[in-house]
Amino acid sequence: MALTVSRSSRLFLVVVISISFLSAQSSSPQKAPQPWMNAGLSPDERAGLVLKEMTLDEKITLLHGTGHEGLGPMSPLSSGSNGGAGYVVGIPRLGIPGIQMSDAAYGVRASGKNGRYSTALPCNLAAAASWDLEGAYEYGALIGRELRAQGFNMSLGGGVNLTREARNGRNFEYLGEDPILAGKLVGQFIKGTQDQHVLGDIKHYALNNQESGRNAVNVNIDERSMRETDLLAFEIGIRDGNPAGVMCSYNRVDRDYACDNKYLLTDVLRTQWKFPGFVLSDWGAAHSVAKASAVGMDHEQPNEYFYGDALKKAVESHQVPLSEVDDHVRRILRSMFATRVIDDPPQKSVVDVMSGFEISQHIAEEGMVLLKNERQQLPLDASRLKSIAVIGGHADVGMMSGGGSAQVDPPGGNAIMPPGKGATIWGAPVWFPTSPLKAIRRKAPGAKVEYDPGTDLNAAAALARRSDVAIVFAWRWEIEGKDSKSLSLPDDQDDLVAKVAQANTNTIVVLETGNPVEMPWAGQVSAILEAWFAGSRGEKALANILFGDVNPSAKLPITFPRTEADLPHKSIVQPPPGTEPAAGDPDAWKKRLEGLPAFETHYDEGLKVGYKWYDAEKQSVLFPFGYGLSYTTYEYSGLRVTPGEHVKVSFTVKNTGNRAGTEIAQVYAGLPASAGEPPKRLVGWSRVKLNPGESKEVTIDIEPLFLSVFQPQQHAWKKLSGDYSIMVGSSSESLPLRDTISLK
Ligand code: BGC
User: pTM (2 decimals)?
Assistant: First the structure.
């Protein structure tokens, strides 16, 4: 029906609209826009303008969280939380929104609990194995998008503690053992997240390298060693990523808790690195009012034990100068303006599930490391296989994920939690419902693909014996708050692999671990693939690699030693009995905040973290840092090193096999003897994509910082003069191109 409006009714409409417009104008006079909403001003100017308007109570509101279940009392204001680990109340009067923080290591946490959906990316360590800076950016950007879609404006991801201790239960959340690789990757990860207008974070600052007794341990390490190892990863990550937040860690360093630590927070972070953002405590890692405020802890999470009334009283009694509080607030506000969370607040919307799958699968394919491939066992040729045995690791229903505050809830539920599919529970391993068995069946429709759970070794061996090839899935779960007791696979899985390998010479082992593991059976199997915790599309990525649709290219970001006895520390120092509050103690949270008795750990391996240790100790390893096989082969030639402020290293890589592939070409440097450094360090790399027979010349520009040593007397980095050896190749132990240059 056509709508016709007569001339008289048109006139009537015009009159009604005009009257309502005029009355709307007169009843609510237009407010002048708040001057700090002028996006033409700098974040610091805008923060300064807001600060001038704020009362002391409003300032203090921004300096603490509103509680977290199990970690002390909840503020009634926590009802405004979006369901994340932290919530900071905003100042609506001034147009300052609250801060909705969510853990987001390999995806947005607690989505299931909140009735939402999140993509699980492969764990951070898997992403590090890609050595892919663009991939790291995509990883962070995906997390940023999904945080926003779920209503969060701050990420608590960005873990970059180095793998100094290979049994640390959180290594899967971190980026390996090399400070330059980890620092460059975390910088891109943060950038990706913040470009989505979400406050980014880097954590846990610093030297939180063991989970055992993390609330009490005192780390002893010399200044140069800390600056050239763990702190260098933070230095690069903060410089490249410019995160809004730095999370200070639970442990002590040189007697003071990290969140009370003048050296870490004032001398290094604020003074030397000129960090403009804010320091937030890890959840329950704050320990004081005046001391923390003076050294530069800007914000307490998850509650207000120190930075609520106690801080207000301290300001009123002049124990804490108001200027310090202003500085904390200004840092928070300027970060909110700089990341545009005020100009462009998140809008809840539907997460793009399909693009999440795609990115997750791509990163998994780039991150799975082929460790052994004898007789070209892989890739499997489906047309030639009549039977495949799939054994162990719950490979019929799912793949392992990493736990703790990094845990992403699996859509569809935990694949194996009794009595069936269930929710995510802290302390219970979660298996994503991504079935390798089904993915393998899809790739080999003509073969009989049978599954054996691996619980009865004889039954597993019998299946392996009657199959053309056996694929054993071995796993080790990891979770925050705990370190592994050893480097071994749990639950007699070593016996299972050995028994299957005895029954079938074509045995492939797929590892789902977040750390290196010992492999006493490594010599008996034909292929080993490290799949890590592979995320939402792990099974597809895995099948694509097993059957050759994807040529593996990843390289280890951590060393796999032969045995636990080869690690720098024979065991992890444990807290003496009575250090931690007893299980179930309702005041445990308070006792931790007030400070537990310290116990000592000595990181006397110093500079020798990861491969630098095995190199210096001349100890052979199972699989070295930087190592990973491909289905093709590469040849290196034509090294040219040009000295200068930025040393330039050029060389040629050729694909000498018959498949296209990506080689991660690595450059290491040996410093002048006077430097007193371990034999070599990674100083650059390039991912080189090559078709069969193709060659490319690669040039890598080495940053001066990467060739420098830290001089504690001068509190500065220095590139020493002398002879530097430059080594190029496919891993830290395969470096066919070498040259020596002299630098002034
Ligand atoms: C972890 C942090 C995490 C926080 C909030 C702490 O236990 O150490 O990494 O961001 O909890 O969940």
Answer: 0.95
